[in-house]
Amino acid sequence: MTHEPQPDHDHVPERRRLLRRAAAVAATTAGAGVAATVGLPGTARAAPGDHLTMGTTNDAGPATTTLSLGYAGLTLRNTAGAPLRLVPGEQVYPQVLDSPTGTVAVDPLGDVFVQAGRPGDEVNSWLWTSEWATTSVPVRPTRVLDSRDPDLRRTIVAGASTLDPTGRLTPGNPIVLSLDHLVRDGYALKGNVTVVGMTGPGFLTAWGSGTRPTVSTVNWSAAGQILSNFLFAELGTLGGYRSVLTVQVSAPTHVIVDLTSLLVGHPSQVVAVGGGAAPASAAEAAPPVEPAPAAAAPGEPVVLGQRNSPGVTTVTSAAPDGAATLALRNPNGATLELTHSDLHVASDLAVGTLGVGVYGLEVGNGTSVGRISDAAFSTSNATMLVSVPPTRLLDTRSAAGRARLLEGVGRIDGRGRVLAETLLIVHLRDIVEYGDGMLGNITVADTTQGGFATVWGTGSLPTASTINWWTAGQLLSNGVITQLGGYETVGGDYYPDVVAIYLQKSAAAVILDATGLLVRHPDSAVVNAPTSTRTAAGSAGRRARARAIRQAAERGDRAVRADA
């Protein structure tokens, strides 16, 4: 049985963002009390040289108050809520970008900034959060469509009436599948798409929602074939459906779609698939191991604006609903500094301890065997997968399709076929800025004989193949995951964000489409934001952050040379 949707596509990214945040909050706060929203109590009582007065607002002005603790720490305990609050600075940029290693701050966008690296070789970074980061969640292989089986056509929520009597999809008529029973407001899916029972040559396109993009997901050259291809596709919205996939074909064929993984902001968005156990909620999780109570160290009280060496200082609050916390405020820069030390190793971190090392923020997890600290993912040490609208990067059959080529244009024949033993360099300008990789699809057409092609991003030519064909006149597709590299021309011009393609043994037309990017922050996927928005809208802080992330992501070891 199918359900007809509301008539218009529903593009509400803000609502999807809020729903993803709500899912993450629900998963991490189940069973916990709701903290009251309160301001800082009292007025400024302590000034530089004075003692820290508990329960009031203390203002040290421009002075820095330092606790020199060695391996001891400042323990902040609040049995009813958060023990530490980092207050966003109104003018965090650009001062915080030049702060010393170990700085932790909350920027005006509400994200946690960490100055990582070694002193003198600092790296700006932002911790991943479920607000904007993504994670891939593998699921039990699940068939979400088989147009040959009426029971497996139940996911179709639009376009079911356009199928032919046997269930084949018909040319030019999209169908929309709902995955709402599998994921709540998902970003994208990974899986496999198969075509079978086709009546002639054609191609299939899979995308989220809206107008059909000019890309192909799987291609076939004759009737009677059975072909499959890896599928990574952005999920869209349609009416009340929040996670949909649209499929359209150019020639009648049956279509099978199998799901193996979902891209989400938080794992709690994935519904149990295939009878597997649902993830345990926060309420069902084992309570965290609390460290043994620490007595307040003897000696003088903490003095603002001076260096303090009290050993272990404990601040304890039992205020209802976590109303009383220690808030660190600095409107002109960093709000917290965790001093970096080359002698500080992972095994030194006790449970609940935060430290900044060479690769970013480290968190003590309290394990008694092996490593007892975990590195937090951030824009300085990890990349995430971001889905993008399906985008054609290369089609050697037309001049427009060759516009991104930096190398190889002169080795394409009059039919648009790349000659054998040719290197192509494709530049992803206006798609990504300082990305680490891409996902998509490569297609070869009009082959002259058996051969293969290799797609890669950096270094010399690998001894691997990305797509293979065995005779002349073939039309074949394959999914591709590749690094991105850099390319320097003979004249010395350097281009980041390129992908290399090398054909061997056979000439063929080559088509490359992108559906996803591996980046350090979604802002690097510039194809998702119009140029006018990137240059005119948003705060100076947002633009400064984007520049810092992209510059940190640029590396000198990613060149792809023409003589590879």
From TrEMBL:
Record-linked InterPro entries: TAT_signal
Superkingdom field: Bacteria
Protein name per UniProt: Uncharacterized protein
